[in-house]
Fold this protein.
Amino acid sequence: MKIVLSHPTGNANVRNALRALKDINQLAEFHTTVATFDQNIFGYLSKYGFGGQLERRRYDEDLRAITSLQPLREIIRVLAIKYDWHSISCSATGSCSIEKVYEALDRYTAKQLATVNTQKTGAVYCYEDGAAASFKAAKENGMHCIYELPIGYWRSAIQIQSEEAELRPAWAATMPVLGDSKEKLEKKDIELQTADTIIVASQFTASTLKDAPFEMSDPIIIPYGCGTTVTTNKPSVDSGKKLKVLYVGALSQRKGVAYLLDAIKPLDDIIDLTIIGRRTADCSEMDAALNKYRWLESLPHHSILKEMSEHDVFVFPSLFEGFGLVLTEALSQGIPIIATSHTCAPDIMTDGKEGFIIPIRDSDAITEKLELLHEDRELLHSMKRAAIETAQQISWKRYQEKLANTLSGILS
């Protein structure tokens, strides 16, 4: 029995789910918006000015024959972002907003599922915000509904970020989830309630589902992998210089950025901080920090990895994270991490070995760990070695095998 997988934009976990299903001959169709292959129109266009965008949508060639595209709305959305057509792309009601892109593909997938031969194709695999219509059609056709939730449950997200908005009102605008519509949130619950199988990537995401006011199937935890080549360079530590600290991510208080900034205030004499990430909203406190410290708004992926390899510690104080692939990337470059328990850190590392796992909203803990690593360069060196060793064990191949085994068991 095979599976139809639907996702509008594609990312690392989607690509590896596709690979897992294709390798065990259980992928019937892949529905998306834009997909680049050597022999399709997007492969041709990728050689020209818009090529960078299209290369990010490239998939393995053996998927081309089973991939169905619905590209128009997504192309308009990407162009609208590029040329600042905010009324089209940015508002939730915009005709080509990301919400509308998800809804359109969901409706398309639902239409296709209504006529699927369930003797050959017995399940559909969808993701948050793009599953409601597909699952309804699948259920009517007697199909199994598989749901991947890439970030924590919305009620938990709103609770934590509403608290944060009260604690730090200057940062409230940087947490857009607080403006999600009632209809959008209700649809998320419909998706969860309809799903037969729920897959998440971290213990934290699984724990947030306890806040749902209804019964659902127990989530299956399958951590994501590290898609970056692990460095072969031997870790080095310069005891005579400041500790080089790095943050990579959106400049949102969902990521706990303000707690990092508080933590390093007393450490200016011993630390150099680099921040890589885009602003999500106006915030005077954040702007002051960006003027004070080294800030890079955006970098190509290979350049981010280079920055990681040239720093001593990666700090990721997120309040609410589904996984945090940036953490596996940091480990791959031999950089210890300081991350909260609301990330994938408890799933991929041991506290005190490859870095430290700290509570959320704890600037003092960040300060303490940074001071320790600045003073104890031998500990820093051992953590760098441990980071590389752990990254070698965290592979997308391992994720593919776990997902394939899980889905094979369900479908059989």
Q: What stands out?
A: DSSP finds 18 helices and 13 strands in the chain. The CA atoms of residues 278 and 348 lie 26 Å apart. The first strand starts at residue 2 and ends at 6.
